């Protein structure tokens, strides 16, 4: 039986806690003497009141949550906070955006998608710039806890492969206090990477504000920037190098980071087959882009080609979405190659989006197994990852995920095309949001400001479904879920 009262109570607590996120940008506004500071204080009061109204009447609704309650809580958490995050943008009279645009920007931030409807960032108040970056940083931490500590318990993530090896709540069959312990350890790793990234950006030449702001969205693999030209504003090879390193690290499985720190050894990195596939894929894509740039004469020389290729392959491949130039105007097949690279995305248990490397790896191995079965029909051929046989249930779940992913993608693409978007724009817009990438092609190459409101709401749903691994949302649409 579902405990909706307990779930609503927890949502009230989350909204109350989320209201506190309005205080740091308010402080930034006071420091820079901006009137936007008062807007964030108003947003703080509004969200505190709404959260209190949900929490207060239900404060006695204490019941242990089961996995089915977890589905509702996870979806309500991301949807509720995504919409609540629009509050300061709607209240700001100088920003002058509709609720649709504010909700789009907020959901894009919280899901670390990085698609934006805002322009004129160079002249925007520091408080609002900080808030956008902060949203993605908070979302990135939520993603790690979701992927490593919660989704495996619901049976919808790809982390089942790590149950036997990873300490913590992944071994448990229901939600337990050990999740808090795992979340705390992940928080330390995430915070440490953020601090290291900020210091590295500062050493590379960024001012303190920009260094902190971009460290938030680099480690979160979000892609929001404080400038319209993204990291291209700085025109610095050193800054781009820092971004590449930390995007690659954030695109790795945080469970592997945890194991490496827990054992004080690099062995977990060496043994992880998903990580090897991830790095090989990135290196191969860089080689292809460099070669094509040189053949077509698009790059001035090998160094220029490598600099542009390495940055954009890692940025798009990890679904971060930073840019140093307009990659959607690159020659030939390169823009489409990068978009397709985002379909793979980062490793399972990372802040990256996409289908995830381990799922693609399993699909490839399953395809090879079927070819071998045609040659040896009576042979027993196992699908192995990291030297261990993947259970048939996991392999079947991957095929089910791919089928659901394709179905959702097709329906959403047809829906936005029906609203008036052309084929290239519709395809890339859905890919950019469902993969939590950000930038697209065609009309949404520069930003998503010009598309219609209906398409924006479809894409908001795409961001949510992409971040929650699709099944977490689809299961709520099943009548069987709501039966006792």
Automatic annotation (TrEMBL):
GO terms for cellular component: plasma membrane. Keywords: Cell inner membrane, Cell membrane, Ion transport, Membrane, Metal-binding, Potassium, Potassium transport, Transmembrane, Transmembrane helix, Transport. Its main location: membrane. GO terms for molecular function: metal ion binding; potassium:chloride symporter activity. The keyword Isomerase does not apply. K(+) binds at residues 112-113, 221-222, 319-320, 436-437. The chain crosses the membrane at residues 39-59, 71-91, 137-164, 185-204, 237-256, 277-300, 336-362, 397-418, 457-482. It is found in: Cell inner membrane. It is a multi-pass membrane protein. InterPro entries: Cat_transpt, TrkH. Low-affinity potassium transport system. Interacts with Trk system potassium uptake protein TrkA. Belongs to the TrkH potassium transport family. This is Trk system potassium uptake protein.
